[in-house]
Structure formats: structure tokens, C-alpha cells
Write a structure and sequence with these properties.
binds ligand MTE; binds molybdenum atom; alpha+beta; Sulfite Oxidase, Chain A, domain 2
Length: 158
Amino acid sequence: MRFASPIALFCLSVSTAPLVAGESPPVLRISGQLANAPVTLSLADLKAMPVTTLETDTVVTDGMHRFTGVLMRDLLENLEAEGDIVTATALNDYIVDIPMTDFEDFDVIVAYAMDGAALDRADKGPLWIVYPRENHTELQDIRYDYRWVWQLSQLDVR
Ligand SMILES: Nc1nc2c(c(=O)[nH]1)N[C@H]1C(S)=C(S)[C@@H](COP(=O)(O)O)O[C@H]1N2
Ligand SMILES: [Mo]
């Protein structure tokens, strides 16, 4: 594990079981205006944070699905992120700017599982930004659809 500091940070601010460093490979790099940048997190790091589940449909799947993950708001607060924009990058080099206000206004999650199964790389995984579009009609809009970054690999706060 190259960056040990995020683990210490999460232990300080989140009351969960201690993490085992190096248990799984990095899946998410977070850079930019943080207390301690960059931070590289594994799935184990994310799973050790408070869990949020969200039931919603999506524009690319049929019917309702139950997503499991971490609130973007919690993740960014834990890292003491300060900024107006989060630039999200995916494994397929898709890039989109997301206003920080989205995470204050809505319970947006970084999902690592759908319907109880891990999201795999061949199908939107390992991480997918998921909006609670079922609960907010204003989110049922193309402006938000393109912020549902699948195969998420990086966040840059500025
Ligand atoms: N990684 C990644 N995420 C992405 C995209 C993409 O090309 N790559 N397309 C975005 C856009 S433009 C939309 S409308 C939604 C749905 O895209 P899809 O139909 O290509 O799955 O996902 C968003 N997330
Ligand atoms: Mo799109």
C-alpha cells in the first residue's frame, strides 16, 4: 500500500473496524484540494466506510436495482475536500465535471455493488457513481445522466 495516510484519516473520523492495509488493490485515486492528496483507496477501504444503499432505476438497465456504496458527501468530507468541481475520470478515459453541490443536495453514492453483487469491470464496475434518480424527478434529466460515471477510477477536486 503506497499511501497509508487515508486509512488513518478514516479511522479518525469514521467509527468502523480498523482496516487491513494492502488487502486489495487500489480502485480509486482522489487528488486535488484535499487535506492530504493524492489518496488511493482500495475496495476494502471503501467498504469500511458507512454503507448507504439506494434503490433506483438507471438509464442503462431494466427495472429497479439496489446499489450499495459510500455517500460522495461522506467520502469527500472525510478527505477534507474543498472545492466547487469534482472531475471524475473512468477506466475508459471518460471524463466529466460534477458540481460539488450535487453531493450536498442529493444522496449520490460511489457504488461498489448492485443487487448484492460486486460491480465488475466488464459491467460498469468496479465503481459507479449513482444518483437517487428514483426519489428526485429533477435528476431524471440528461444533465445528470452523464454524471453517472461507470468504471470510475479517479476524482480530482478543484
Ligand atoms: N465510464 C463511462 N461512464 C459514462 C459514460 C461513458 O462513456 N463512460 N457515458 C455517460 C453518459 S453520456 C450517459 S448518458 C450515461 C449512460 O451512458 P451509456 O448509455 O453509455 O451507458 O453514462 C455516463 N457515464
Ligand atoms: Mo449520454
